[in-house]
Write a structure and sequence with these properties.
Elements: E1 3-10, E2 17-24, E3 27-31, E4 40-43, E5 48-51, E6 53-58, H1 76-87, H2 92-108, E7 111-119, H3 127-138, E8 144-150, H4 161-171, E9 175-178, H5 186-200, E10 203-208, H6 219-228, E11 235-239, H7 248-261, E12 263-267, H8 269-275, H9 291-296, E13 301-303, H10 320-330, H11 336-344, H12 348-353, E14 369-372, H13 377-382, E15 387-392, E16 395-399
Parallel strand pairs: 1-4, 6-7, 7-8, 8-9, 9-10, 10-11, 11-12, 12-13
Antiparallel strand pairs: 1-2, 2-3, 5-14, 14-15, 15-16
The chain binds zinc ion.
């Protein structure tokens, strides 16, 4: 073995398990107590080991632009307008520098898998792809980075965008996304995105139904086309804040539709909280889809960061544990099983959404492991446990020293 992590606490169904993890050739080769050998040994002293976090929905290309944008109204319209103007001055070098700043923050928070949503349109061209695609190889030592190309400002209403999506996929983008709510023909965009996905045999990840009016949902169109094209398990939809406005029986019907079609839902709690309900003066609706209810009906769901320090979300530390905790607050989740599920929503569930094979702390899987400063999955979410160290394919990628008191 190349490395033994002694006294690791692993989250279990009900209780945690204290054990050792043996690593060789980048993979986990043993999980059992009493491992020893003439090799590097790290004693975790009962700290929690979880698989690397999975960030399935984040915008690296428009992160960290608050120095050049306003965020005063806190509305989706303002965010799209402000970023649309700022984008005109983006250069490949500028996008690359901001993406690296964000990506490294994510790595330091324990994220080892990511789907970055990058936009193309006739104003920005494919600069985001040119800037960020090289990071896939440059950062492979720490993170598996997947690129999803999508038309933030519409497709059918924005001539030239279609060709740019095709160009991005030819250059190596892994997934195609959509944003029907900014399109003059939402159904038309959804149909065209499915066509493109089938042509390139790539998965689909939409931004969808992003307001709190229960009318006019396009979720049904996505489910219908997923079934028509045999894309079950390969389609995700992000935000879907309209679901938060549905009464229980309608929510259940939507959940069953999603589960039957095999469409996953990603909730972006920080962005949804920030942008929804800004038109109200009091009793403000929160607009966060109740994923823990959807899971009960068999829908695969995930939590993700979405935006970092821009008018869509003028916050962000790239912490997935913070997203899990934030969702627990919004969902009023306090039970142990509910809190464990919140941890799954930033690990196992998004891994399934991204169809990642060999994910998780198990013998035979890649040793992608994060050590948190706590001793249970419940405490990780309750206490926003700090990531102390990360390992990618068995190699240490970051270290954070625990805080120390200096008594007089
Ligand atoms: Zn997004």
């Amino acid at each position: 073995m190349d490395l033994i992590l002694k006294n690791a606490c692993l989250p279990g169904e009900r209780d945690e398990i204290l054990t050792d993890i043996g690593i060789a050739g980048g993979n986990i080769v043993a999980i059992q107590g009493g491992l020893s050998g003439d090799t590097e040994i790290i004693d975790l002293d009962g700290k929690l080991a979880v698989p690397g976090f999975v960030e399935s929905h984040i915008h690296l290309d428009k992160a960290c632009i608050l120095d050049r944008c306003k965020s005063e109204e806190g509305t989706l319209e303002e965010a799209i307008r402000e970023v649309s103007v700022a984008k005109k001055a983006f250069t490949v070098e500028d996008i690359r520098a901001r993406a690296i700043r964000t990506l490294e923050k994510c790595i330091l928070q324990g994220t080892t898998r990511m789907r970055a949503h990058l936009e193309v349109d006739p104003v920005i061209g494919i600069k985001s792809i040119e800037a960020i695609l090289p990071l896939v190889d440059e950062y492979a030592w720490a993170i598996n980075l997947e690129i999803c190309v999508f038309p933030q400002e519409g497709l059918l209403n924005n001539p030239g965008t279609d060709e740019l999506i095709i160009e991005a996929l030819k250059r190596g983008a892994h997934v195609v996304g959509g944003c029907p709510y900014t399109d003059s023909d939402p159904r038309g965009q959804i149909e065209r995105i499915f066509e493109i996905a089938c042509e390139f045999d790539v998965d689909i990840d939409f931004h969808l139904d992003f307001d709190t009016n229960p009318e006019g949902m396009t979720l049904g169109d996505v489910c219908e086309l997923t079934e028509k094209h045999g894309y079950s398990g390969r389609v995700a939809i992000g935000h879907v804040s309209k679901l938060s406005a549905l009464p229980p029986e309608q929510l259940k019907a939507a959940a069953i539709q999603l589960a039957n079609a095999g469409v996953a839902v990603t909730v972006l709690p920080s962005t949804d909280l920030y942008l929804m309900g800004a038109e109200r003066s009091h009793n403000i609706v929160r607009g966060v889809a109740p994923v823990h209810r959807l899971i009960e009906d068999g829908v695969n769901c995930a939590l993700s960061t979405n935006n970092v320090l821009n008018p869509f979300t003028p916050f962000g530390d790239c912490s997935m544990i913070r997203m899990a905790n934030l969702y627990a607050n919004i969902g009023q989740i306090g039970t142990n099983s509910g809190l464990r599920q919140c941890l799954d929503l930033v690990t196992h569930h998004p891994a399934r959404l991204m169809r990642i094979e060999n994910y998780g702390i198990a013998v035979g899987n890649p040793a992608d492991i994060v050590i948190l400063d706590c001793s249970s999955g419940v405490a990780a979410v309750q206490e926003l446990a700090v990531p102390l160290a990360g390992f990618k394919n068995g190699r240490r990628t970051f270290t954070r020293e625990p805080a120390q008191l200096h008594r007089p």
